[in-house]
Design a protein that fits this description.
globular; about 230 residues; six-stranded parallel beta sheet
């Protein structure tokens, strides 16, 4: 049997469209401390970073003193809104099918690398019945923020996979830079929060337009790698 492949998925902007929940929570967190609500485009631009770093980016240097307070409030209101289910976090079309298909393969390991907290990620996995589908869960709670390569390196270590058999799939420049720094393939997706030009500039090896194209690219990569090892 060929060496196992590791496919690492980002969450927000790649598997699920969580932007509206993040934007709403950030707005409420700012307003709770008497700060003007940030531009939604600014908030979308930092999705993928670990929360405190994302908050600091949105605050900017002039309001950095509010970092701890806004971060703590964001956590509270994020989970409050999520529990109320007033804002949807829908999966992108084809995401569930591809994850289920890959999880059923003996030659593929799956992992998650996300700026989300562990609580939100494990809630998603439980809801989808994916508790055993992923061999490694890297979140903002147990690894350095993207674009540091730590999440990918941890996933490689936990899965026992070599970098040449790994691909990172994400929608932001942070994902692409993280993958490149870790020495693995960087697959960008065009349906997320950073545009195609930004992904390309950040080092994406390939950029896919939808899950059908992503599926073809992944299966083709796995097949080509296996054939190369057997020749």
């Amino acid at each position: 049997m060929s060496a196992p492949h590791l496919v690492i998925f980002d969450c927000d902007g790649t598997l699920v469209d969580g932007q509206h929940l993040v934007v709403a929570a950030m707005e409420r967190a700012f307003l709770a401390h008497g700060l003007p609500a940030p531009d939604p485009r600014t908030t979308r631009g930092v999705i993928g970073l670990s929360l405190r770093i994302a908050v600091d980016e949105v605050l900017g240097g002039e309001m950095s003193e509010y970092g701890d307070r806004v971060t703590n409030t964001f956590r509270e209101v994020f989970h409050e809104i999520r529990h109320q289910k007033t804002i949807a976090e829908p999966f992108y079309e084809g995401a569930r099918d591809l994850v289920n298909q890959l999880a059923a393969r003996d030659d593929v390991h799956l992992a998650i690398a996300t700026g989300k907290g562990s609580r939100a990620v494990h809630q998603m996995l439980e809801t989808e019945g994916w508790e055993k589908a992923f061999v490694s869960i890297q979140t903002a709670d147990n690894a350095p923020s993207k674009p540091h390569p730590g999440m990918v390196l941890n996933a490689l270590s936990e899965s026992g996979t070599e970098p040449e058999h790994c691909v990172m799939i994400g929608d932001t420049t942070f994902d692409m830079q993280m993958a490149r720094s870790a020495g693995v393939d960087a697959y960008g997706v065009a349906w997320g929060y950073h545009d195609v030009h930004m992904l390309s500039k950040a080092g994406a090896h390939i950029i896919l337009d939808d899950y059908t194209a992503l599926q073809s690219a992944l299966l083709g990569r796995i097949s080509a790698t296996d054939q190369g090892e057997q020749s």
